[in-house]
Automatic annotation (TrEMBL):
Pfam (any one): AA_kinase
Domain Aspartate/glutamate/uridylate kinase as annotated: residue spans: 6-237
Pathway: Amino-acid biosynthesis; L-arginine biosynthesis; N(2)-acetyl-L-ornithine from L-glutamate: step 2/4
Catalysed reactions listed for this entry: N-acetyl-L-glutamate + ATP = N-acetyl-L-glutamyl 5-phosphate + ADP
Name of this chain's protein: Acetylglutamate kinase
Organism: Shewanella saliphila
Length: 259
């Protein structure tokens, strides 16, 4: 019997500040895993990074939704993402009875990483490399929980946008990607959910400034995977219990980004 594709769920940082949201998501993940679905969780933690940078007297600068990451901020960024955020999610997973393996992009030869753009400092761009490590963990019925900290072959720790991290891992395992944020999907200029978007519609809404900042990065990451896989990628909400239930049943939720 052919196994279903791995479900790659990406969650944004705001989830980590919502006990109820984490509990609901982990319950949904536990149900899916119990039904034989392999689930890989990729996470951000942008708001935790913001908090930690401020607490350490550092400034936050973003360019087109990506955090400019100078060398002196790396210990704080790595601590917040690969440390605190990752362990908060592992703790929530444990509470739901999930056996998880906490990891980062730098583990197990999963991706190659290089500096994305000198103007962004130690921000990484990653490409899928070797799925052996991930597939072993998934085959045990364990849930990998992966942060977006990568390591380059030069030995630099790199800060990768978590939607782009999820893109690389979804390609690596040929999985079904769902990007879960704190909004119900991509919203139009009036705040209404858009059920489906293709490349030219995305370009139009970006040019109009309707899709911006983190959502621009997310939609572009989703489009890249949709085109690569030849199937839609969903942008939805971890806040919405109904969307999570639909997701558990294998239905489509939020905005479908079409190939
Ligand atoms: N058209 C849009 N529809 C929905 N959200 C948008 C849109 N344009 C910008 N955004 C912003 O993008 C945010 C989601 O991106 P981001 O903060 O990076 O989320 P996450 O941390 O979940 O990855 C929303 O909370 C919203 O503020
Ligand atoms: C380069 C870059 O922007 N990295 C992101 C990584 C975390 C992230 O993407 O978190 P969310 O999913 O919560 O937005 C950052 O430093 O905020």
């Amino acid at each position: 019997m052919a196994t279903k594709p791995v479900l790659v769920l990406k969650v944004g940082g705001a989830l980590l500040q919502c006990e109820m949201g984490m509990a609901r998501l982990m319950t949904a993940a536990a149900e899916m895993i119990a039904a034989g679905q392999q689930v890989l969780l990729v996470h951000g933690g942008g708001c935790l990074v913001d908090e930690q940078l401020t607490a350490n007297g550092k400034e936050t600068i973003k360019l087109d939704g990506l955090r400019v990451t100078p060398e002196d901020q790396i210990p704080i960024v790595v601590g917040a993402l690969a440390g605190t955020s990752n362990k908060i999610l592992q703790a929530a997973a444990a509470k739901a009875g999930i056996v998880s393996v906490g990891m980062s992009l730098g583990d197990g030869n999963m991706v190659t990483a290089k500096i994305k753009d000198e103007r962004l400092g130690l921000v990484g761009e990653v490409e899928p490399k070797d799925a052996t490590y991930l597939n072993f963990i998934l085959s045990q019925g364990w849930m990998p929980i992966c942060s977006s900290i990568a390591i380059s072959s030069q030995g630099d720790m790199l800060n990768v946008n978590a939607d782009q991290a999820a893109t690389a891992l979804a390609k690596l395992v040929n999985g079904t990607l769902v990007l879960l944020s704190d909004v119900s999907g991509v919203l139009d200029g009036k705040g209404q959910l858009i059920s489906s978007l293709n490349k030219s519609e995305i370009e139009y809404l970006v040019a109009q400034g309707v899709i911006e900042k983190g959502m621009k990065v997310k939609v572009e990451a989703a489009l890249e995977v949709a085109q690569w896989m030849g199937k839609p990628v969903q942008v939805a909400s971890w806040r919405d219990a109904e969307q999570l239930k639909t997701l558990v049943k294998g239905g489509s939720v939020g905005t479908q980004i079409q190939p």
